[in-house]
Design goal:
The protein is mostly beta strands. The chain contains one helix and nine strands; from the N terminus they run αβββββββββ.
Length: about 150
């Protein structure tokens, strides 16, 4: 009878213990090193780049639309870190807008004598077709540091 009681206690103790099972995770299509592919309808390519030289920068935004694109508006903003993780416009003269009646454009703007700190270029591209379809793409340059 004592053996049965010990056996029952052992079985109850085993059921009371947590059971941890490790399963193999399925492979992710978004694994490290896999580039993200944009899902654009009428935008073929777009880029936003900031080129530093000393305490000056060149802001370059380039976009190409599908052959059906008839109008492109590009808004450039030179940004600096704000509060926490937010960014803000560098100053009142750091925003530029250009509109063209074409399916591709390049926009170049310049900023001189910048203060030391971190900077990035925000480019907002709005593309439109003759049928009225439109698409807005926002891109950011790499962050650069001016010393």
């Amino acid at each position: 009878m004592k053996k049965l009681a010990v056996l029952m206690s052992l079985v109850l103790a085993l059921f009371a213990m947590p059971l941890t099972v490790f399963a193999e995770q399925p492979a992710s299509p978004y694994a490290a090193g896999t580039p993200a592919v944009p899902n654009w309808d009428i935008t073929a390519s777009a880029s936003s780049t900031l080129y530093p030289e000393g305490d000056d920068v060149t802001c370059v935004s380039i976009v190409t639309g599908a052959p059906s694109v008839t109008s492109i508006t590009v808004e450039q903003t030179l940004e600096v870190p704000g509060i926490l993780w937010f960014w803000k416009t560098y100053d009142n003269d750091s925003e530029w807008t250009k509109t063209v009646e074409d399916n591709a454009t390049s926009v170049y703007n310049y900023k001189y004598d910048l203060e030391s700190g971190k900077y990035r270029l925000k480019s907002v591209f709005t593309l439109e077709t003759a049928s009225g379809k439109s698409e807005t793409v926002t891109m950011y340059s790499e962050t650069i540091t001016i010393s």
